[in-house]
Write a structure and sequence with these properties.
351 residues, globular
Length: 351
Amino acid sequence: MNIWSYILKRILLMVPTLFGVIAITFAVIQFVPGGPVEQALLEMKGRGGAGEASGGGAPQYRGRQGLDIERVNEIKALYGFDKPVAQRFWQMLKGFATFDLGNSFYHHGDVWTLVKSKLPVSISIGLWTFFLTYLISVPLGIAKAVREGSRFDTLTSLLVLVAYSIPGFVLGVLLLVLFGGGSFVQWFPLRGLTSDDWATFSLLGKIKDYLWHITLPITASVAGAFAVMTMLTRNTFLEEIRKQYVLTARAKGLSERSILYKHVFRNALIPLVTGFPAAFIGAFFAGSLLIETLFSLDGLGLLSYESVIRRDYPVVMGTLYLFTLIGLVVKLLGDLCYVWADPRVQFESLR
């Protein structure tokens, strides 16, 4: 099987997978209590909050009691719940096929535009987390493998394990208390990616202000990620160093530096390279909710969470569609990277 046949096969398999995820989530939404129609009806009656009935697919609403039936029907039509479930699902699928994600119930705007407006925050957190994780972890992991059993290896292992044991949001709270004006000093701001008057700064001033704002959230986000990657790098390099071809290279009189970077390096990096796409995308979404909430950063993680709480179904379904699609593409890229890093692997073995 050549590369193009494999890619085409994987793309064709993405379609039923994506359809299944969307269909199951859409079906579950029909039975979630406190849908947008129910909330609107309760607000009209002065109660506020979520109700006890279904999320929009049920024929009757307990919150409608005491309200004119025409007014109830108007609200259902406003949110699109006056149409049959199958028709709404089909319209949603047709929109997703052209990346028309619909309009938000809460923000009263296009979902795709809303997602794009949140991307700068998620991209900032994701890119810095990803690059710093690899820039710290790979050299540190190699150094630990070369110095296995030394004091350096022991001390850095202790540091890594401590960093791994502290959840990112706990470290974030600690950083805010220590350096964000909580109880000690206020060296860093508490919220946002930039200052309110950022547009008036010079280019150098804008860069300094941006870096000043992201220092604490990026530190909290990187701590746990770099610990895992460091130990993975160390263990992978140790496994390669102990193999027979390394002993043979040493017997031929090659220097340790030459053995490490000409022979061990490429083989040891295979697990890291194959996980590169997943780590790159994961840095944007994994754990971003807590970091964004803690540091008041308005990104995709916070948007997804608030959409679920507010029963903003177009945003929920739209972001789920995008995240699932991205995840499937990333999985394909991971398999391609694996073949690229290790030519011995054939596409038939990745079926």
